[in-house]
Amino acid sequence: MPGAALCCYNHNGGAMRFTALAAKGLEEVVAGELRGLGLLPGPVGPGAVGFQGSLVQAYRAVVHLRTARRLLLDFGDFPAADGRAYYEGVRALPWEEFLTKRHTFAVEASVRDSFTGHSGYAALRAKDAVADRCRQALGARPDVDREGPAVRVCVRLAEGRCSVGLDLAGRPLHKRGYRVRPSPAALNETLAAGLLLLLEYDGERPFCDPFCGSGTLAVEAALIASRTAPGLVGGRAFALERWPGFDRRAWERVLDEAREARRAPPCPVWASDKDPGAVRAAAANAAAAGAGAAVSTACRDALRTAPPGDGGLLASNLPYGDHAGVGENLGALYAGFGDALKRRWAGWKAGLLCGEPSLAKRIGLRPARRVPLWNGPAEVRLLVFDLYEGSRRR
Ligand SMILES: C[S@@+](CC[C@H](N)C(=O)[O-])C[C@H]1O[C@@H](n2cnc3c(N)ncnc32)[C@H](O)[C@@H]1O
């Protein structure tokens, strides 16, 4: 097939290509995490960071990465100008090396500037192509299981090309397994971890989220402070454990190394909210993450209370738009919190995730840094403030 690049699945220690998918704006953070794991990232594209490594290095990455959305083994990449080239390209991949009749699979697709604008259609055609190839090569097709497949195939169609990847975790990495008390306004876990790494949080100073909601930022801070790899949380199973050539000894070694790296957090992590239900959810989620002892929760109004310590990192996802209570005056809340920061939080660094620029202005302090990020489809800004006596007013 012209222009096709097939990747061999080499489970004998040879190098393979992988792609870590990232939320827009977090690509460099993911690349930094890969470097920290001794890997050489590149290329870095919109929402994706490639790297080469052995299967064991990929095991380590899927256990440790805090900010990637998914980790994929690159299985194929080919031109797909139309539906026919797309179907043939997927069918030309060596699926029988990966799937047996007993394996289950599922296909997810994303499409951008492509021959089709329908991700559902793209997923269906790829599923047909995989099934047709297996029926021909194996005499039967593997079953589809959308919930817990052994092999989750991620197809990305963009600008006339198709990339096919196999998801090592089998589900998005933000699903850490600790969210026992969900909340509609909850921040995505990988975005929360990304925010903390952008703020250079390493657990060596106190942390506080005075608008904690269900506690995502505080839980992620506690995981960083205790050097807990997210893959250890929640007793999750990973799809790679059902792949052919799964190296159980190497996998157990990677998990043991991660367990040995854990420590007691050296500094406090505080989480508070004015809503008692949110505080209960934050405490339950922290406990489910194994961070119940590390996160101190309290019911407090952020506008009226003093900081819990002399200095450290404050990070919050401020209420915005439909997250606000009915009738709440958000402008006054932002202005009031800006005042509180100026009057009471000298000695702290603050990172505030704000959705609405006009609201962010109401804080009334000049940010040292503004980082554009994406919270799902919504563009948001991380505003960073260094607070000291007499912080600059806007
Ligand atoms: C966008 S949500 C935070 C979501 C959180 N990051 C999470 O992952 O669940 C904003 C939170 O601010 C809280 N809040 C609003 N006004 C507050 C105030 N004056 N003091 C403390 N918390 C407040 C709300 O109760 C809500 O839980």
CATH class of the largest domain: Alpha Beta
Uncertain ranges: 1-8, 323-327
Mean of pLDDT: 92
Bound molecules: S-adenosylmethionine
In the residues, how many domains can be counted?
A: 2
Question: Brief description of this entry?
Answer:
This protein is of the alpha/beta class. It contains 10 helices and 16 strands.
Structural write-up:
- Helices cover 29% and strands 25% of the residues.
- It has 394 residues and is an alpha/beta fold.
- It has 2 domains: 5-167, 2-Layer Sandwich (VC0802-like), CATH 3.30.2130.30; 189-227 and 263-386, Rossmann fold, CATH 3.40.50.
- Strands 1, 2, 3, 4, 5, 6, 7, 8 and 9 form a 9-stranded mixed β-sheet that branches. A 7-stranded mixed β-sheet has the order 12-11-10-13-14-16-15.
- Helix 8 (276-288) links the parallel strand 11 and strand 12.
- It binds S-adenosylmethionine (SAM).
- The site of S-adenosylmethionine has 21 residues, from helix 6.
